[in-house]
Inverse folding.
């Protein structure tokens, strides 16, 4: 689309750009929505799951009940908020939570667990003996799917643009085989990941899951 300038960065930075209005819209962690002065979800598509997501997990050397501290991923506000929520409500644990700002995977050892997202999480699956999938835990806790990220604008955008942008998203989702073929093989089966773990349609069930999550993180103890 010639109407957009594409900026690529990790999720938390895109959210920051949306907050400071240096961009008009972005695929952002949904936890940023309550912090925006104005917010609009502009497509029928999202990054979500309806069970195990595989790429957003807590990793540890020991069972979660033995974990003393958890390193939090600086790349996604939503995953951090979800971790806090699940530790408190679902697992009913209270480890020390540590914010990070740079590489920390090497510190995931002993009784120190770590939250990882994306490619780093998929790679860590081959390293850590204990893996706690946040998408699966949310589904078990609430019975609902989870939305990690959505296309959100910080102002009203023209209806014609939204329609075209929605069609562009649809084109990508309906041509997943081409997307997968364009990516090099990694530590996790991409065909399985993009078709079995990630779910893209922002349907009524996902909207219900998103609404519940945003309600829950209004609690300062959960939002951090």
């Amino acid at each position: 689309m010639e109407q957009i300038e594409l900026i690529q960065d990790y999720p938390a930075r895109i959210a920051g750009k949306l907050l400071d209005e240096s961009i008009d819209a972005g695929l952002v962690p949904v936890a940023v929505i309550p912090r925006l002065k104005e917010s609009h979800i502009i497509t029928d598509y999202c990054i979500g799951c309806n069970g195990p997501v595989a790429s957003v997990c807590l990793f540890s050397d020991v069972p979660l009940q033995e974990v003393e501290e958890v390193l939090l991923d600086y790349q996604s506000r939503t995953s951090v908020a979800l971790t806090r929520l699940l530790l408190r409500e679902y697992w009913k644990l209270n480890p020390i939570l540590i914010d990070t700002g740079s590489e920390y995977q090497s510190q995931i050892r002993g009784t120190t667990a770590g939250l990882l997202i994306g490619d780093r999480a998929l790679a860590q699956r081959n390293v850590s003996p204990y893996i706690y999938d946040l998408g699966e835990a949310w589904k078990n806790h609430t019975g609902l799917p989870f939305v990690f990220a959505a296309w959100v604008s910080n102002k009203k955008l023209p209806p014609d643009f939204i329609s075209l942008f929605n069609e562009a998203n649809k084109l990508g989702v309906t041509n997943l085989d081409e997307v997968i073929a364009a990516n090099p093989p990694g530590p996790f089966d991409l065909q399985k990941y993009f078709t079995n773990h990630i779910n893209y349609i922002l349907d009524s069930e996902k909207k219900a899951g998103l609404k519940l999550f945003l309600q829950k993180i209004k609690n300062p103890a959960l939002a951090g």
